[in-house]
Amino acid sequence: MALEWVVLGYTSGAEAIMLLLLTVPGLDGLRKGLITVTRNLLKPFMSVFPFCLFLLMDIYWKYETRPSCDAESCTPSEYLRHQKSIMKSQRNALLIAAALILYWLLFSVTSLLVKIEQLNQQLEKLKNRD
């Protein structure tokens, strides 16, 4: 299962980098190309949603089938393993949430930038008519 988490981590990283490049001021010359690239990548990145759902179900299944371990009923090594498993599940849930939020932000920022670009083109047309 580690490969799925690596893929999700790289996807989240790519989303974060694209979001950063789209929102950094001073990259006006590159912004049009970045918007085009991002719009083309949004559809393949849509596969993040079912992938995250699958990974969330995996976390839930591991949580439900995990043996309970209290401090009194198990050895210290078993208790430590139990705690590490809980920490990994929480970390993975945060990664899922980050991937989904970053996709939503990337989609929103890209659509806003496309609307701004369209409005600028309309403004130029109006200026040229006068």
In brief:
By secondary structure, this protein is mainly α. Helices cover 86% and strands 0% of the residues. Keywords: Endoplasmic reticulum, ER-Golgi transport, Membrane, Protein transport, Transmembrane, Transmembrane helix, Transport.
Helix segment tally: 4
Radius of gyration, Cα only, in angstroms? 22 Å
The average pLDDT value, as a whole number, equals 88
What's the total number of strands? 0
User: Which assembly state applies to the chains in this document?
Assistant: single chain
**Percentage of β-strand residues:** under 5%
Terminus-to-terminus distance:
62 Å
Largest β sheet strand count, sense and barrel closure: none
Give the total of domains: 1
Share of residues in helices? over 70%
3D shape: rod-shaped
Element order: H for helix, E for strand = HHHH
From the helix content, strand content and strand pairing, which structural class follows? mainly alpha
- Uncertain segments are none
Function: May play a role in anterograde transport of membrane proteins from the endoplasmic reticulum to the Golgi.
Protein name: Endoplasmic reticulum transmembrane protein
Membrane topology: Multi-pass membrane protein
Family: Belongs to the BCAP29/BCAP31 family.
List keywords for this structure.
130 residues, mainly alpha, 86% helix, BAP29/BAP31, endoplasmic reticulum, ER-Golgi transport, transmembrane helix, transmembrane
